Amino acid sequence: MISKIEFVGSTRDYVYRKVKDQIINWDYKPGVKISEKEIADKLNVSRTPVREAFLQLAQEELLKIVPQSGTIVSKIDLELVEEGRFTREHIEKAITREACEKLDDNQLILLKTNIAMQEFCIEKGSHSRLFQLDEEFHQILFDVCNKKRTWELIRKMNSHFDRLRVLRLARNHNWNIVVDQHKEIFTYISQSKPDLAEVKMEEHIKLVIVEKEELKIKYPEYFK
Question: Which end of the chain, N or C, is less packed with Cβ atoms under 10 Å?
Fold first, then answer.
């Protein structure tokens, strides 16, 4: 019985991660209906863990479960975008300052390698992989400061913000600005310049907000 419960739980988490990733990466667009049966068949799992995953995603406001109607991918809520961005901005400024004191040579190499891979994504035109590497860059900083649980917490708050970031990358191919900001953050941290690193991190987190109204006008059907 215990092994069965553990299996169902791990399957639920697997379904949750897969569907969440597909929503954030725009495989499922806002307003699209998805069903338990569709996901269960696609992932070759039973409907019980899918139902549990759907409930979890509904709590994060990525799905809207409408009785007698079905499950719909939520539209982007700009109030949730701003709340997530605000939280991330203030936490990451503190993380960046702390990283200036704690980053060691191995972690510097990780960041430098990450940036090199981002540049390769620009060359190959892969916005989805660039987004993943962007996230990994920030996660390394949280790991440096031993704040892994904090990272997981803000990840749950930033789903709508992340969807807007991916839309921005997909529609605006001026990706150099994102990578250049990462380079500057890296330089200031490696030189132990916390004030400059913090200012650049704030500018970086605010980047997509400059374009949010333009995206809303261009794609009104995607927004709440």
Answer: N
Q: Kindly state the average pLDDT of the residues 126-154.
A: 93
- Cβ contact 160:80 at 8 Å: yes
- Residue 116 shares a structural domain with residue 64: no
* 209 and 155 within one domain: yes
| pLDDT score recorded for residue 54 | 93
Beta bridge partner(s), residue 71? 34, 65
Task: Supply the range of the domain harboring residue 26.
Answer: 2-73
d(CA 67, CA 69): 5
Confidence at 174, pLDDT banded by 50, 70, 90: confident
CA–CA distance, 154 with 142 (Å, rounded to integer): 11
Domain boundary among 73, 93, 112: 73
CB-based contact 58:92 (threshold 8 Å): no
Q: How many domains does the chain have?
A: 2
How is residue 174 written in tokens? Answer: 């001026």
DSSP helix, strand, coil percent of the chain (3-state; round to 5):
75, 5, 20
Which residues make Cβ contacts (< 8 Å) with residue 129, sequence separation at least 6?
A: 121
Q: Within a 10 A sphere around the Cβ of 90, how many other Cβ atoms?
A: 12
Residues 14 and 86 in one domain: no
pLDDT tens by residue, 33-45: 999 999 999 999 9
CA dist 9 → 3, 12, 48, 130, 160 (Å): 10, 5, 10, 31, 25
Tell me the average pLDDT of the chain: 89
